[in-house]
TrEMBL record:
Start-end of Low complexity biased regions: 203-217
Protein name: Uncharacterized protein
Family named by the database record: Belongs to the IPP transferase family.
MF term (GO), any: tRNA dimethylallyltransferase activity
SUPFAM superfamilies linked: beta-beta-alpha zinc fingers, P-loop containing nucleoside triphosphate hydrolases
Annotated segments matching region Disordered: 197-221
Keywords: ATP-binding, Nucleotide-binding, Transferase
Species of origin: Hymenolepis diminuta
BP GO annotations: tRNA modification
NCBIfam families the UniProt entry points to: miaA (TIGR00174)
Amino acid sequence: MGSQLNFLSSKLSVIAVCGATGTGKSKLAIDLARQLNSEVINVDAVQLYKGLDIATNKATAEEVGGIAHHLLGCLNPVDGFYYNVHHYRRDCCRLIEFLHSQNKVPILVGGTHYYLEAVLWRDFLRISDERQDQSEFHSETDSNLLNRSWSPKLLDKLPSDPRDYYATLMNLDSESALHLHPNDTRKLQQAVLAHFAGKKADPASPKKASLSSSSRSECPRFPPPDSLIFWLDADPEVLKSRLDERVSKMVSRGLVRELDDFLTMAARSLLPDQSIVNSNGSVSEETKKAIFQLANEGLLPSVGTEHWCRGILQSIGFKEFEGYLQLSPAERESKQGRNMLDEAIEKMRTATRRYARRQVRWINNRFIRRPAAGGIPVYRIDVTPFLTASTPEMAEFLWTSSVLEPCLATLRGECNPPALSPEPFIEPKPEFPSDSSFPPPPYICASCNGRIFVNYSQFQDHLKSRTHKKRLASLKKQTNNLDLNIPLVNKSTE
């Protein structure tokens, strides 16, 4: 078996494993790496950072089983302000080249599908900052961690009212403005600042998609058959129960203590001039409040300009436990403190389930719902039987028979019919109308309180929705049955 797999591995450039959190992605990647004599590259944004091993669900040393892992726990958490998808793509591609030089097939695994797409398709990141892509990442910048990424001079150029960002960007770069929602002030602000800073599109990269484009990535870095994707999927209700149980296990393993320790480390790094530790060695409540206030104002390097949006602080767990972590030991023992802990645990369960749904939507909308040209084959494996096994022995049997062996058979090209078949690509609806006489985005539904859409197909779906029809019926009653069945108003871009 080993020689067959090694022979096949020489034909493959990369294998990717994706799926919702809790479906066993790491287990499959490790098992495949062992069979292929290969190595694993992490594609989980928060697992890039050191610390919070429980909160980020890093594989344990026992689970890794001696298989080499890359880009896992390799970054200082306070460096999160400087490390983004561009840096990740650069580092990951270098590792892929290195493993190829060792005659090994890299196995990419993780739930940050945004990062995965950036590596697997050359044209995913259409606009890049050349200075950011080409510069090396140095931790010497730690002394400037409390500075924002934009200079005060540039920030002073912004309109005083965020509601004016869209009009400003439309005047500066109308093509970019058409691809952003008028109410997405954070992205609009960054686009305006980027224009002020003189950041331009990389002339060597593909141009932005036209209005009639599907806006899907079209240029695989390793065109099929040199690459493939294994997608681990499960029944939503089964996965929900598994994720709820996993959160409970994380708490019993010491999640709260881990968050406390990380908060102490963050305080010492980010507030070095303050007295942050009590006589008992714990972080003072005042310091905790200061850290969370900075985070929620977007002033921490690990969170950037959006609450908890960068670095390890974006991991599920920290923001959900914010209130509880600020309590003193005595307050945590009170009835109110115990209630706050229960509420934090439930918030974490809800956030984890929501994150899992987003991960599946990305796979469907980006990897499956796309033109076949430029696509990478996606093999869906149902792990529901494995997740619902009644005993550990049965779980291991089902894993081997219904997950691992079908993947290996697919890699070997065995079985007729094949053990797994790739998911069919689904041609997406056009995001913009093909009729050039139709007004450009944004599209505004005047009947639904001016709701705004920048995607044409989403706008059309809205017009057919039950919510929109109910709104029309209500308005007709209020206006003595006047004809209000003309819901489209195109916002002026003057």
